[in-house]
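Lecture notes, unit on protein representations.

Consider one protein chain, 581 amino acids long.
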Amino acid sequence: MLICAILAASVCLDPYLDVMEKAVSAYSDGEVSAYLAEAERDGVQEHGFPRLAANLGVLVANGRLADKKPVLARMMTAACRDAAKGKMPPKSGGNEFSVKELAIAFRELEKAKAFPKETLDGWRNDLRRVEAARCYTVRPKIGDPAAHNWCVFGAASEQARLATGLGGDAAFVERYVADQLRFFDGNGMYRDPGEPAVYDLVTRLQFAAILHYGYDGPSKAKLEEQMDRSAEPTLKMLSACGEIPYGGRSNQFLHNHTFYSALCEWYAARFAAKGDAAKAGRFRAAARRSLEALNGWLAERPVRHVKNLYPRESGIGCEGYAYFNKYMVTMGSWAMMARDFATSGRETASPLPHKPSVFATSPAFHWVFMSAGDYSAQFDYNANTHYDCNGLGRLHRRGAPGAICLSTPCAKNPSYRIETPNDAALAFAPVVAGNPKLELVGQRADDKRAVTEWKVGSVAWTVALSSEGLSATSEGEGELAVTLPAFDFDGKERSVIKAEGKTLTIAYRGWICRYETDGKIVDTGRSACNRNGRYRRFEARGEKKLTVRATIERQAGRETSSVQQQGETASVQQQDVHGPL
């Protein structure tokens, strides 16, 4: 069954177990058998295997997938045994990414008395024999100029072991909490090298876990201060389709949703404990919005771990390290943590702002977000060209497929696999010789719209977002042009693209993305791919002043497909929604 929709009078008591079961069930019995045979023969090769064991363990402990107990016993034995042996093979992963999950699974299995005492004692003894200095891969020198998220994952695993009575190195936790605090920016966002969105949010999730599992060391107050500082930015960066920001590596994977939900559950619990029920409710609503956005993707057969419908074995949309076995179950691991953090409470309305808003990150992350009504937009003005490009790289509308306009821009030479080489980078942006960076020169919001003002070389570009859609006006000398991304192919299904006069439409899965201009629409004959699929590059062209309007609307006479639809549900305003305890 899909993640359950929360209806007016009934609630899903454990949506996170549902997601974990979806993650585990994405692996066929044959795939699990082969994975287990490899681990028993050659040793655990990377952290996807112990994460799969841990997810299955929590499910079995909670009365699910009981027929998998025999294979679970063998998986837990291999995973706990090898975690205590030492480091994983070079370049394939690390124990720091999975020991905390094994600790949580052991706690649940022991509580449920799911296995005989001698079996549980064997796993307990192995997990107690894990030594951070011997078994974790990345242990940077204090003061190293680069951030290292691996050691934060390791600290979270050690704190989880301390909390569950399975050993744990408190000095290791303190060492790296204190050291990695250097890498928060003024908004409390974690500056992993290159500032990718994923490794801000998922590393903050590890810090949240460290606090949740009882860390009370000398750096606690400073850590809490940084986490509190990042609370509002976390809400403001969630898109209308329930997606984390684009930007950098490991983006557009299903696990992005569950680690965002987990982080929001932690914030909700924190603000509830402070007596701020309204703020806690906003975070619960954000957690649910992100989780529900998985619905369409999890309905696909076979389930993919990245947001496209190319054959799973193609690897399209994935970095070399981001293969299915490792990253599919990661969705479940973050749901496991969300379940640990969740508390009972009342949601408030949508986490998106009620009024139009603009939010700019620090220059380190170089993103600007706009939100109005059911729309959201994201710009990058100093993009990492290995993954992205400058311009408006996302326009979302709640309920619509995220990729129908853009979820993430197309880099010229991305550091992940794409269908065919790109002719050029592609975002929604003015075309200016030399590809100058965008300069943000103004921003404002009122009751009707959010506005950002940009300089792109000699071109002035004003972008306004309202509940009616987006309007972008370029002003400059001579002929002006703005690129218009037209989603063409998701790996399985093609859209219907029509250019008629001053209008360009893209019809896809019951929705229409429509560009209208006071200039002319030109098909450049070029294309570009991103993680979601293939886009055709059109341009709007005009003289001296050029306006383009972009809207995303339901297609008349078409039922909206559930696949890739972003989880529309009934209103949750002031509903009493209970998270798992």
